[in-house]
Design goal:
This protein has 622 residues and is of the alpha+beta class. Helices cover 63% and strands 9% of the residues. It has a six-stranded antiparallel beta sheet, with no helix packed on it. Strand 5 and strand 6 form a beta hairpin.
Length: 622
Amino acid sequence: MQGDFYTYTIAASKAILILLSFGILLRCLRSMLREDYDPETWAYIRYGRDRLPVQHWEVIIGRSPDCDVYIPEREISRTHAVLTRNDLGVWKIHDVFSRGGVWVNNTFVDDDGAEVKDGDIINLNGICVRFTDLSMEKRERLESKRSGVGRRYSPALTLLMLTAFQFVLLLEHSFYAKPEVISDIALGFGSLIVMEWSCFNAMRIINRAGFEIETLAFYLTSIGMSVAASSTPEDLYKQILLTLAGVVLFLLCGWWQRSLKRISSSRILVALAALILLGINVVASDVVLGARNWLEFWGFSFQPSEIVKVAFVYVGAATLDRLFRRNNLYVFIAFSAICVMALALIGDFGTALVFFICFLVISFMRSGSIATVMLAVTGAGLAGFLAVSARPYIAQRFASWGHVWEDIYDKGFQQTRAMSAAAAGGLFGKGAGNGWLKRIFAANTDLVFGMVCEELGLLIACMMVLAVILLACFAVRSARTGRSSYYSIAACAAMTILLTQLALNVFGSMDILPFTGVTFPFVSRGGSSLLSCWMMMAFLKSADTRKEASFAVRPGETIRSARDWQQSSDERKARRSEKKQEKIRAKEQVKAQRKGRGKERHQEEKKPSGKAKTRSKGAGKT
């Protein structure tokens, strides 16, 4: 009887895990991609009788239908000018190599651009338009009409389903884990539940309802916690601390990116720090399996290239006014080349490939030139050929690609075991902690897809892949409505890195692509990888401009325009002048009072006393 109950409980838990995973993904999908949200409006450009909205802080004006502000006139170039806004609400316009030039109020716009104020006339090669800036009061009215998030699909209910998913995972582990580690596993999942609900409540306190990105990240982290509990339950304390550190870094990075001024001023420092970190890695790291990409600090293994990924995105993304400055692009190309050269010296071929694909995406989004991308691909192909020729272990991996079953005890040992375990797990898996692949080297990192397939089933493994793809689709959608091109490029670049890692990990372990040893985002065990993935989510949150959705985006109704700043500055000056006048009047009153008191004393001193008057009268009579 107990055996039947045990069997039915395990079967029910497997079905519940699949249903909960499907429900979490479906609710996030509908909230992130199916609902229509109104974009933000910051200004208007009046062209004839038309009023064209300016919906970003950086817009392209031109004759091409792909431009943000489309003006179908022959005199205007396809990409004529760029209109930008800074954190202080100051608008500037830049000429983008147009054939007719740009004027603002009959003043020619040079390479440094020109400031544009409310009511100014912009001349685009003879075509005049009027710029209208929106004050804070007008934007408040527009913001009140925008639809918010979390009304049709409650984020609290989705998070409650995720909590149930974590409890069911813990239940399965309690059936297969050793008695002495069950308390550690319970502590790991309990800490994860506390973190996600604390983060959710913090967002509610600051009136932020968009929690889909965090929910998907915690979903993947939960599967990663299950992998760690199955393979290395004795190190769950490290996993808990690293997850907490990742969430804290996610919040800090999101807060930091609320200001474009902070980002632009710190980009060079971040680039230098990344290069120094790679230099330390080249000099001080030990060689492990042909690569020297690990550093040891106080018992924690640290992979600097994972943190450099975040810096690469941070430095590579740029605001639109800098995209058309060639020097800025050349600096990024030089930075990318140094990073890839350092990774080549380290011997981390998989990470170098991830960097290169991210470089292609950033280069295309910055330049829009396919020729530039093809030139980079050609150069990378030559560099890859030289790397394969110079590094024997890389050549061996390419040689065994597609032939792992021919040598199952040497070159194909890991991949054949991963595919066998994935096949043994079937659709529903053997149960969390009830697999044998975890005893194979790098099962919880490089072969984690096969491990999840074996223990949780192919359906759960496919859903964790779909979770990353859903985040990438949301990044593409958010890129269209991002306030700045920096946020759009950073979000797409960050998800490019995670998607590339996913493809190399899944297809590499299944022998569809060469085995590179790249981790699966959030799921593979590894502290630096987990930190990097959580920090990448901050880029995605910064591009989310839905109303009351992201803590990393300042509410539109609280952002002042240049006119508001000027008005508030004038009011502050008026208040300061009033205070000065009040002080002057108070000083004058004090002086007047003192002067009046002095006169009274002087008059009292001049008055004779009564006895003196009597004596003087008597003396006169005598």
